[in-house]
């Protein structure tokens, strides 16, 4: 059996390596996020957003694969994006990456519009 390295594939620690591995464009996003985990609820702030995930700043760490109900704030304080996600990445004391695992097509369209209208550079 032979293994070949794919062309144009950068190691994760190389410049641009992690951005090339992302499936979706990611933007800076600084809005509140209600995180509901079982019976507990806390509010933190999103730092980045993409169609497939978001990064939330948090001083605590959650185990990988923790299921979280998310209510993501938008420009209109009376409208939010409702989704369920799973922790896929965690930085102790800084925050965590949460991948969307259940989100309505309407809310996914809202995120896409936010990204398209954003002045933020892709990160």
Overview of the structural elements:
The chain is built from two helices and seven strands. The chain is mostly beta strands and 123 residues long. It has a single domain (18-105), classed as Thrombin, subunit H (Beta Barrel). It has a six-stranded antiparallel barrel with strand order 2-3-4-7-6-5. Strand 6 and strand 7 form a beta hairpin. The longest helix is centred in the C-terminal third of the chain and has 13 residues, at 105-117. It is globular and about 35 Å long. The termini are far apart. Residues 1-17 have low confidence and may be disordered.
Report a brief summary of the structure.
The protein has 123 residues and is mainly beta. It has helices spanning 17-21, 105-117, and strands at residues 27-28, 32-37, 40-49, 53-57, 67-73, 80-91, 95-103.
Strand content: 35-45%
In CATH, the architecture is: Beta Barrel
| DSSP summary: helix tally | 2
Write down how many β-strands occur, each being a DSSP E stretch of 2 or more residues: 7
Topology:
Blueprint: H1 17-21, E1 27-28, E2 32-37, E3 40-49, E4 53-57, E5 67-73, E6 80-91, E7 95-103, H2 105-117
Antiparallel strand pairs: 1-3, 2-3, 2-5, 3-4, 4-7, 5-6, 6-7
Attribute tags:
123 residues; mainly beta; Thrombin, subunit H; six-stranded antiparallel beta barrel; 41% strand; disordered N terminus
């Amino acid at each position: 059996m032979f293994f070949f390295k794919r062309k144009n594939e950068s190691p994760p620690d190389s410049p641009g390596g992690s951005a090339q591995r992302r499936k979706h464009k990611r933007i800076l996003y600084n809005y509140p996020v209600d995180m509901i985990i079982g019976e507990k609820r806390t509010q933190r702030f999103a730092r980045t957003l993409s169609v497939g995930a978001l990064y939330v700043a948090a001083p605590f760490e959650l185990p990988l694969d923790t299921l979280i109900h998310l209510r993501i704030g938008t420009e209109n304080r009376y409208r939010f994006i409702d989704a369920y996600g799973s922790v896929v990445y965690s930085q102790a004391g800084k925050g965590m990456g949460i991948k969307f695992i259940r989100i309505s097509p309407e809310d996914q369209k809202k995120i896409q519009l936010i990204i398209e209208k954003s002045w933020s550079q892709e990160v």
